[in-house]
Amino acid sequence: MSFKPKFPDFFLVPAAICAFMTVFTLSAPAQSPSTDAPQTDTRGIAARNMDTSVRPGDDFYRYANGGWIDRTEIPPDRGRVGVFTTLDDLSNKRTAGLIEDASKAGADAAPGVRKIAALYNSYMDEAGIEAKGLAPLRPHLESLAAIRNKRELARALGESLRADVDALNNTNFHTPNLFGLWVAPGFNDSEHYAAYLLQGGLQMPDREYYLADNPRMRDIRSKYQAHIAAMLKLAGFTDTDARAARIFELEHAIAEKHLSLAENEDIHKANNYWKDSEFASKAPGLDWAEFFRGAGLSKQKSFIVWQPGAFTAESALVASTPLDTWKDWLAFHLVDAYAGVLPKAFAEERFAFFGKVLSGTPEQRPRWQRGVAVVNGLLGDAVGQIYAQHYFPPEAKAAAQAMVADIIAAFRKRIEALPWMDPKTKAEAQAKLTTLYVGIGYPETWRDYSAFEVKADDIFGNIWRGSLFDYRHEVERLGFPVDRKEWSMTPQTVNAVNLPLQNALNFPAAILQPPFFDAQAPAAANYGAIGTVIGHEISHTFDTEGSAFDSQGRVRNWWTPADFAHFNAATARLAAQYDTYKPFPDLAVNGKQTLAENIADVAGISAAYDGYHASLQGKPAPVQDGFSGDQQFFIAFGQNWGSKSREASLRQQVLTDPHAPGEFRAYTVRNIDAWYPSFHVQPGEKLYLAPADRVRIW
Ligand SMILES: [Zn+2]
After folding, report:
1. Were 686 and a residue from 58, 78, 253, 363 both cysteine, which residue would form a disulfide, CB within 3.0 to 4.6 Å?
2. Does residue 312 sit in helix, strand or coil?
3. How confident is the model at residue 42 (pLDDT cuts 50, 70, 90)?
């Protein structure tokens, strides 16, 4: 599971092309920032971003970030701003500089550099895109129009399958294709890559958008139907209102059978082993042999089906829904996926719905920023290799490694001291820490892009080929031994991730910089900021999901029933605590959906706090701006979460993200005993919890 919230702005490039979060998170004008960072203007905590007129015990989020919140406006081209978007800006600006250098490189440049330049330039060639009009799309629309029966439909549905979902690492459960493929170490054989299939078929981000019965969602649904009709019209279809109504009805029927995000996160329900021969009886309707042939998966003998009920229902819908409706659905999904690289009218119509209506963002990002996102999505490692050389010196790597070692040592002590955990369970937990692979900055090996053909004047084809290149890369490794040191984020990504099936962590170079990490800053700020991120990721090793995997990444229950009972009771109280948070009168945080991330936040602060105190080696902590070491530690944590969102964007996050909104993540401190004396928090203050009500997990 990753650390950072998903940015629900809208998909900048076809969602199908990439499983990295990078493509969803690009943000902000990097060349002329119209807002300043929540921190970055100083070493250590940023006192000027605080609002010390608020009592920390009443609203710790505002106490840490109020000054910044008051003077910050959300720029028109984004749904939210905060520390993460500021660092995304920096990473994107640097990446754009590297791409610009690459585009000046001559024919003697390295092949990876030339590919970066060609891909970026082809995206930026707006005149060429306009001149081509619908030509790149036409052969694909014609082949969909030529589908004559359900057998050919099954093949086309198989051909649209992409490796665009990720259930446990970057946690992306959404694909607009009928289903999504995730290739990862097997639940039942963690030494080899297995094929996971996940539900799909919805263009809007989650089933809630189709099913929730309230005025806002009803309005979104009617605008969505208009968007479908508008896209079909642009693509040359007639009778578009009727077609749109049928497509919407089909997606609505799919949504009714989808599992919710909270249900998707329960891996104990996900390990459904289906042989290829069983699909026809377990999920009748779709011609599965033809589907797998289209997907290039005919040789694959078994799958893990994440949501069996949805597969049965979606397959039945293939049989019961008229062929023409499915053909229109495929055409609409194709056009929507490639809107960003078709003539401007397509990109604008897509943004009008996904940007303005769904995220409330008034303006589209500048094209160069979207171009950087495309390059990061399709050639992420080629860019990342250059990025790491330029922006991640060996000293930074060594300093970050030392912090990780401190926090792992703190975790070891915490586990050893747990009064409720069985000694055997403790021994397994320690074994997990021993085999944990911690990647810092960048991966040990880089991906080979030589089989991905990039043409200077063909952005549509580049994305088409890139998405297939990615997909085939995943399919080709099915059954092969797992590389436990493989990364799932690029170095230029501002995020961090725990990979439970590999028992591994990745901390990319782009998050290991101020304000999260600064070798010159006081230890209190570093441990409070990046230290809590590191602790958060380590703790996923032992949370509701991590506890299901052993030290080799195998699915194995290594907890005693009594351990589990204690853990479940403690975490149920945490879920209930988050259920009480209401960003809007009609919408509360979902404590169950965000539970794993909230557990990780509680555990992350606890371990980072211990690591911080160990790092002092008995010496007094330096005071900064009148704040004690412990105060700086907690303020730095609170300042990780400074952010401002548009209403639509925040509502989308609450519905579709396993992470709670930043404000409530900052409130995690109320569960930490040391926070109370640090800020003299007293009974009666809004965030005060009696000692018995504080949730202590690790
Ligand atoms: Zn996480």
Report:
1. 58
2. helix
3. low
